Amino acid sequence: MPDGWHKAFATLWLGNLITGMGYSMTMPFVSLFIADLGHYSKFEISMYSGLAFAVTFITQAIMSPIWGSLADRKGRKLMCLRASGVMALTISLTGLAMNAGYIVLMRAIQGCFSGYINNATALMAGETPHRKSGWVMSQMMTASTAGNLIGPILGGALSSFFGNLLGGAWGYRVPFFITGFLMAMVFLATLLFVHEDFKPVKKAEMRPMKDIMATLPNLQLIIVMFVTTMLVQSANMSIDPIVSLYVKSMMPGAQNIAFIAGVVAATPGLGTLAASSYIGHKMDQIGPLKILRLGLLAGALLFVPMAITHSPWALAAWRFLLGMASAGMMPAAQTVLTLNTPPESFGRIFSYNQSFQAMGSVIGSLLGSGISGIFDYATVFWVTGATLLINFALVLIFQRKNS
């Protein structure tokens, strides 16, 4: 391994963990925070909450290619510093919000400058020998997944504690301040402990993206991975907003719905954590495309029992298995990109991938809410499973055409 590789990996892994934790520690409670900021109607609270969620991904999709171009000229470490520094500032300022519009504005700014996890992943992809790429991509995903698991529990505990201690909206404000402080620590750790073997490139010497795309040995493969990222993220986001409501529909009149819904929501992350290291090593042995095909097919099939079950505990068990399958989806797609992208184009290719991921988040959340509103919750699972099956067919067709 290159000198300083393990220190950089540990720092960026921890940065991904805190970034994932910071997001999930604050976002689930934004609607409650907004409700405490004024006399908003139920419709207004829903509208502002939806805007606060979606606007980040929309601005992220627009800005990612611009930051990717800068990353290829200045390096991925600078992009990690930019993302963590602005996130520390905007999240802290969100804690000072006096109205809902201010929160939406801060979320939009945060989306414009976001990208720590993707740039940290791209940095490690560039610094890691190809024989270790699969394991490293899996571990970087594990960090953000673990953060997403810890965040809601920690955020809920902090909100309750400080709400009782200080009263009013302070219960929701304090987690924003704590997250801002942690992101400032991520900024300092990245600055001090991460070394990137990168030589700055002048703008005039940068090859245009269309020229790079034209010379890629597997352009079709890169595009298929972009689409895979979008569809997998869409599949994740279509289910997350309706899981608790689906659990509630299975348990009419139950008293502990919130706890059980929390368990059901957390199980995919636990499955991913349990399987990621093994699947990462397997990816390095047999290749990421085989793992990707298996992950997509397994994920599509697992949505069938989830759509027909009437037990929240059975749903939790199936979602745990889905989390294990997910460990072979997004990391596999990122590994394929790593192995088929020249080093001078890493920043831009991964930024385009981030844009597709952001588009998947917007599409998935709209798809899940729209389908459940028109039909029922089970239909969301059927449609999501079909989406992954289409993705599996797409990858299979590409491989057969190019084998």
UniProtKB/TrEMBL annotation:
Transmembrane regions: 12-35, 47-67, 79-98, 176-194, 215-237, 257-279, 291-310, 381-398
Its membrane topology: Multi-pass membrane protein
Gene Ontology CC terms, in alphabetical order: plasma membrane
Subcellular location field: Cell membrane
A single MF term (Gene Ontology): transmembrane transporter activity
Lineage: superkingdom: Bacteria
Residues in Major facilitator superfamily (MFS) profile domain copies: 8-403
Record keyword Transport present: yes
Keyword Aminoacyl-tRNA synthetase set for record: no
Keyword annotations from UniProtKB, A to Z: Cell membrane, Membrane, Transmembrane, Transmembrane helix, Transport
Principal localisation: membrane
A Pfam cross-reference name: MFS_4
Protein's name in the database: Multidrug efflux MFS transporter
